[in-house]
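The authors assume throughout that readers already know how a fold can be written as discrete tokens. For illustration, here is how one protein appears when written out as sequence plus structure tokens:
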Amino acid sequence: MPGAPSWLQTGFVKAMRELGIADDVLLRKEADKLLGMWQSVGREFHTTSHLIRLLTCLDHFTNASQQPAVLTVAAWYHGVITQSQTRARNTTNYENYPASSDFALDRLLQLGAQKENAIRVGELILMLEGRQPPSDDLDACIFVDAAISYLGASPQDYRSYCQLMRAEMDAMEQLRYARLRRSLISKLLARDTIFHSPLGSGNENAARQNLEGEYAKLSALIPGDPTGKEKTVSRPKNKDKSSATDTSEIVVIKGASARTISRQPNLSPEDKPSSTKIPVVKVSATERKAIEERAAQLQAENVANETENGLSSMENVADQFSTLTMRKIAVKKLESRSAQNFDETEEEDSPSLPQEDENEENMYSSADDEDSLSEI
């Protein structure tokens, strides 16, 4: 491919052989096709130079990685599809990583690569979407750090990179680009460490300084706080204005006394009474007098009935009470006789109940009966 060093194509063919593809002619054609995509019109930063920089970083860790050939192939395919080709609008990444991952998976399977290797290449490319690689996946950490190694460049080189990246996204308006780019930078600065492998640990401080400087420049382009904090939109304080958008209502009851509230059953509209008021009936003077006379007559009759019924009721209660008292006395006598028979086995003579106690008991029972009848 004109404009590309010869070793670049040779390294691609070698890596693809380790993935299980042995046709060198087919592999060289694939390398030329990929280089043509890297040199397509519209690319300013993500060009063949970017690919070479990524491959050079990976070569430094060939001995540390578990599958260096897979990393090399993932670098060749990671940015062949751009956002302009898919018309993506919500990102400042010129390279479309999901589309590039799908393209790499299809091409590797068509060329005859082993399926597990092809899937692994696709997974590595997706790691560049912004997700953090697993800490126990060394190859993924190395690949992501190599892709963003330009963040630790010198301040002059980093400014040049920023200008080239903005030129690639010239179709996006300035304010929108500043907002999206600044959002991406804030996520990178929020990490505990920007880099995840020994490859980028030495560039951590330089990368943070470059990102903080770019963040401040982008913030100056965004209307709001000069420090980079955008103004938050506060809710309208005017009640009339807020009622147009917020139809909810909050009712606050102050000074309400403690009381028990009963739930009313839910009734359908046809079952609900039309009115809860009790109707008022008007009565004339003549009708009122007749009602009062009738009420007095009924009251007199009730008093007479209650007197007659009361006497008969008292007589019945007295008879029942007298019968109950006699039964109690009979029970006591039986208990006394049983006790006497039991005592005769131990003693020859049993003391008899004195006449005074018996009279006292009868007097108590009679008095009890009189008190009970007086209470009734």
Q: What stands out?
A: The mean pLDDT is 74. Residues 295-375 form one domain.
